[in-house]
Amino acid sequence: MSESQPAATADRILDVAEEMFAEQGYRAVSVRSITRACDANIAAVHYHFGSKQILLEEIFARRSGAINVARLKLLDDCAERPGRGPVLEQVLEAYLRPSFAQPSDDEGARRFMRLRSVVAHEQADLSKNLIAKHFNATSQRFIAAIAAATPHLSANDVYWRFHFLLGAHYYTLSNPGRIQALSGGQCDPADLEAALAEMVAFAAAGFRAPPCDRSQLSFAPDATQSAHQSA
Q: Of 95, 61, 220, nearest to 168 (Cα)?
């Protein structure tokens, strides 16, 4: 057996496991079903990975490593210079682009996002630990860059708006059919460049908005209490 064969077997197992976890759910998929689908024996899975959870952790490590390297490389290139857009848009695109499209594997990017959604729903603690381990350090770099580009916002404002960016990001990649149904097919998230451009514009507008003034909310507790007192 050549040195490349064990590596190829391991990659095949990871590819099949990722697809099955994303489509069928983490709980519903067994190691045995993975081995059947990838035409490998169960000993090969245990040799390379040891357990279903280790398989999941290796999928996260493989995907997140590529995403984070690409994100940080793009972030390092963000700067004010002729012919470039505003720095805020550059930073947002640097964060989003690598997860929207990976070289020769756009479907893999979407599948990994669906997998993250599945694991978050089925195994909340495991998901939280995996996200923290593989993404927190890079996310903090981007939060700092966004804060530098939005000096009118407090740290609290930036964290909330980054949180909303994450929500839009996850939903767009994990449930792309929703906007197609609402728009009658006019908007198609499979057009990754269009989806990316729209999300960058949306997020940039959100980060540029003034700090939150809760007193302006129509149903803020203080406003509701005052209305009751005057009735």
A: 95
